[in-house]
Amino acid sequence: MKLSDLTPGRENNFNLIRIAAALAVLITHSFAVAIGTGDAEPIRKSIGMSIGSIAVDVFFITSGFLVTASLLTRQSTIEFIWARALRIFPALLMMMLLTVFGMGIFFTTLPLQTYLTDSQTYIYLVKCSTLITGVAGYLPGVFNDNPYKSVVNGSLWTLPIEIKMYAILTIGWVALRITKRFGLRAFEVFVVTCAVVSGVFVVAYHFHRATENSFSTLFFMFFSGAAFYVLKEHIRLSSLCFWAFVFALILSATVIQHEFFIVYVLTISYVLFYIAYVPSGLIRKYNLAGDYSYGVYIYAFPVQQSVAALIPGVSVLSMLLISVSATLVLAALSWHLLERRALGLKGLYVGHTRRILNYRLKGASTRSR
């Protein structure tokens, strides 16, 4: 079955994939936050990558696919940017306010006045809320005695990179639309070229230096997802190919481990989109719950650092159980009270634009009489 036959509508497993990826990041961070290093994670020892790193790649592949679909189906580029902003910033800003003026005040070892007047407090708030110039790492006096010292939210570093991917994709689309006759085809060539060239670079560079979650790897993952969307008419999702790729991944992870990354880079996107679209039935019931993945992703690390501060010497297992429970509650509240409502404002831009256009057209019609 062609991928294009399955993409219309919302009948897919992306919500489930994303929540699994967010929880995988939480699992990896449980090792780092509880004992001060993520090197003890068993899967990292066997294949050279953490489950959290794989999850970040999954996020970028998924994002590349879905964001490209959104860009090509929106009525305008500004509408697309508005939709992306609504998905990222309302929940992020709420999390930042709770972090800085709730958790930060509770855990800082500094006097309250010193904490609230320290410029670093507001540098952290502004940088991590806007993502324009990257993110800041610490708040004054917060988590200084934790095993993973001072880092308040070790998950946010991927968000500025993702925004850069949006920008590159959007600039490419806008620039190539100028050639109206070949605009869409030129954009497709641009996307596929980005994926192929970056893929070759990542594979070649891997033999000289580790490329786990490097900018070039994330660039490839994002544009790999984007390429799958623009080539969806030419891609068939086959059970034979899926299981062959899964077998290759298992073989490279267990027998020829030094080749795992190469096999992984070449197969992960196909495996991901097969899982996203082919399994159906009860698995789709998860979509009724909502999309908690973003909330899990942005809240998990501060929750884990809080657990480490409140329970010195906490085990990895205890860290995992406590932080999963607390983070899921926060993520559910974030989705139902804020994120879902913010996404409902997508039409605000469209409606406002239409009112302006109708007003101008009406005015022009009146003047012409």
UniProtKB/TrEMBL annotation:
Pfam families: Acyl_transf_3
Residue span(s) of domain Acyltransferase: 13-333
GO molecular function: acyltransferase activity, transferring groups other than amino-acyl groups
Keywords: Acyltransferase, Membrane, Transferase, Transmembrane, Transmembrane helix
GO CC aspect terms: membrane
Bilayer-crossing regions: 16-35, 47-68, 88-110, 122-143, 163-179, 186-207, 213-230, 237-256, 262-282, 294-311, 317-338
UniProt GO BP: polysaccharide biosynthetic process
Protein name (database record): Acyltransferase 3
Organism, as annotated: Candidatus Gallionella acididurans
